[in-house]
Amino acid sequence: MLRLLLASQSPARLATLRSAGIEPVVQVSGVDEDAVLEEARRRGPVPPRDAPLLLARAKAEHVAGRTFTDMIVLGCDSILELDGEVHGKPADPDDAVRRWRRMRGRSGVLYTGHWLIDLREPDDGGTGRALGETAGTTVHFADLSDAEIDAYVDTGEPLRVAGAFTIDGLGGPFVTGIEGDHHAVVGLSLPLLRTLLAQLGVGITDLWRTDRDHEPVRRRARRAGLH
Question: How far is 127 from 200, CA to CA, in rounded Å?
Fold first, then answer.
């Protein structure tokens, strides 16, 4: 069975794939994200949309350079653009509080970069190709009170995620709406993943688990006439 290798430690990305019937192999890249962006900026300005794609590519390439074969590697990274500035994870609680006081009652764009590397052998349909794209989703934030911001930051959740918020966790009540793909805000756009896989000659249904633990996936596939 073809496997997807996820080069990310994000629990949200793993949960998103699992909910879509995909059980990836997980390998954290350990890439120094600040160093990657600093090197890129020496060559010229890095638009906000390009920053997460650079990081996603660095993560995927770092993992692909190890001893894995017969897999499709997926690297992802997310940043929030607000007022033309990019924001990853807050440096500390004070940084998270300052950021939320800027974000509240306003809108930003959450960009998530996706990079795929085909490690399959040619005899197994491998193309040897690498490709990627960024998904952008506009996020509208509620007008939080200072007390709500302090309480949210005290949970620690904003410190662990790009943009200092989640839509699928404690931060959900503080997002009043989105324009674009919900999954991209979580950290991995399933529609974009499907599109990129197709360019490698892989159907996303080829990655569905068919073992007994994922019997609902088999039933869905049979109803759709795919298996």
Answer: 7
pLDDT for position 84: 86
Residue where the block lists tokens 């650079």: 54
First to last CA, the chain: 14
Cβ contact 86:53 at 8 Å: no
Cβ-based neighbours of 213, under 8 Å, separated by 6 or more: none
> Which residue shows structure tokens 């970069």?
113
Domain boundary assignment for the chain: 3-223
Q: List active site positions.
A: 77
Q: Give CA–CA dist 136/179, Å, rounded.
A: 9
Can you name the residues that pair with 115 across neighbouring β-strands? 75, 132
Task: Give the pLDDT band of residue 211 (cuts 50, 70, 90).
Answer: low
Q: Which of 179, 187, 168 is nearest to 114 (CA)?
A: 187
pTM for this model (two decimals):
0.88
Beta strands in the chain (DSSP E): 3-6, 25-26, 71-82, 85-87, 107-118, 130-141, 175-179
Which top CATH class is 3-223?
alpha beta
Residue 62 one-letter amino acid: H
What does the pLDDT look like over 43-96, one tens digit per residue? 999 899 999 999 999 999 999 987 678 899 999 999 999 988 899 899 999 999
